[in-house]
Specification:
mainly alpha
């Protein structure tokens, strides 16, 4: 009887999701602050050297003709020197006293750590067709790699979910976080071609937002209806927590033609996302 009631309750919730909702939002991680990472030093002038990560991106990341930046996981895995460089970069980040940095340096630190860790976890299990095939998260309902502790920073064991949903999203409260982190999938916003740094951070976040919103992976108009990335559904709370909020966000970054379509149609129809690995082929 209890299971039946739960099923009925779930159906009722799904029934009242916005038309564009996939239902997967119910299972997406929420933004829940890990208060321990609030510490920072606004006056700090310390900078972190991310050049090793930039060098790896320069060598192994390439834009595809479709506009999707693809990564040469096979090439990196085959190069002992590059694999060691990636591990060395992660070891360097693990030793950083991140709580002593200013906010912009911290943002760059966490985003680069997330992206480099994601590449590392794919390499450790490569070849795979999708990052979702790397099913190493603990727990009965765990899936993919996002719930597994992968690195220790300031004595705390961290998962990819911790970095994105307990640090980046709740501390910065900026929807552009979703354009900075990369989950190794075709449907995801592109990996930046070099490391994130504190310099010109706001401009780079805006550029990443514009690039994704104006790409069909972000927003497309199909038969007069608007299809958006499932990112806007999974993390609806970060985009005004409503369909109107998503539309308002998209209009900020849309080019003239897309903005006109958004204003003319005025509603979101459905969502889409491609979980295929963002690899060179």
């Amino acid at each position: 009887m209890k299971l039946l009631l739960k099923a009925v309750g779930l159906f009722a919730v799904l029934l009242f999701l916005p038309a564009f909702g996939s239902g997967e939002r119910l299972f997406a991680p929420g933004s829940k602050l890990w208060d321990r990472w609030q510490a920072h030093d606004a006056g700090s002038t310390t900078t972190i050297d991310h050049s090793a990560w930039s060098a790896l991106l320069s060598k192994h990341l390439a834009p595809a003709s479709s506009g999707v930046a693809v990564f040469d996981y096979a090439g990196l895995k085959a190069s002992n020197a590059d694999a060691q460089a990636l591990q060395g970069y992660l070891d360097t980040l693990a030793a950083v006293p991140v709580s002593t940095l200013n906010r912009d340096e911290q943002f760059a630190f966490w985003v680069n750590l997330y992206n480099a860790l994601t590449v590392k976890v794919v390499l450790d299990h490569y070849p795979v067709a999708s990052i979702r095939d790397i099913d190493i998260s603990p727990g009965l309902f765990g899936s993919g790699p996002w719930g597994k502790e992968l690195i220790t920073v300031e004595g705390e064991d961290l998962t990819l979910n911790d970095i994105e949903h307990r640090i980046l999203r709740p501390i910065w409260n900026d929807p552009r976080v979703h354009y900075a982190v990369n989950c190794a999938s075709i449907g995801c916003p592109n990996l930046k071609p070099d490391a994130w740094t504190a310099g010109a951070l706001d401009a780079n976040l805006d550029a990443a937002a514009r690039a994704y919103v104006n790409d069909p992976r972000g927003v497309s108009v199909v038969d007069g209806k608007i299809v958006v990335s499932r990112i806007y559904d999974w993390f609806l709370e970060d985009f005004g927590n409503s369909e109107a909020g998503v539309l308002a966000h998209l209009r900020v970054y849309a080019d003239a033609s897309l903005k006109a379509d958004l204003e003319r149609i005025g509603a979101l129809w459905s969502t889409d996302y491609d979980w295929s690995l963002n690899e060179t082929r």
